[in-house]
């Protein structure tokens, strides 16, 4: 068996079959536009199908402005916002795992259950990270505010 690199391969870009595929492949800024369109479609599909994602987006809509407005360091602003975005990221990945597993088969299978459980665990870990970040950074500020106003 002989291995050839792309430049010496018999299926180079000059062949009719590969040139058609290369013409369809988007490049440069057009690639970015199509990638963003597919990303948006994934967010919309997850919003439509997953109630947990809708709930987390609603919480993010409240917490992200708070993360921007609270008087903390720049690094703490990033940690607060990043921890919320991490939850959304984990939920998107979990939803994609569930959709792929369900597409393969709706029958119960140990590996399918394990994949879904791991996706769910990723969301739980992201939620714990967010709770810790918000508790450590905003907890003392909230406690100070409560003591002043009560």
TrEMBL record:
Residues 1-22 are annotated as: Disordered. InterPro entries: DAGK (IPR000829), DAGK_prok (IPR033718), DAGK_sf (IPR036945). Mn(2+), Zn(2+), Cd(2+) and Co(2+) support activity to lesser extents. Its EC number is 2.7.1.107. The keyword Methyltransferase does not apply. ATP binds at residues 50, 98, 107-109, 116-117. GO terms for biological process: phosphatidic acid biosynthetic process. A divalent metal cation binds at residues 50, 98. The chain crosses the membrane at residues 122-146. It is found in: Cell inner membrane. It is a multi-pass membrane protein. Its cofactor is Mg(2+). This is Diacylglycerol kinase.
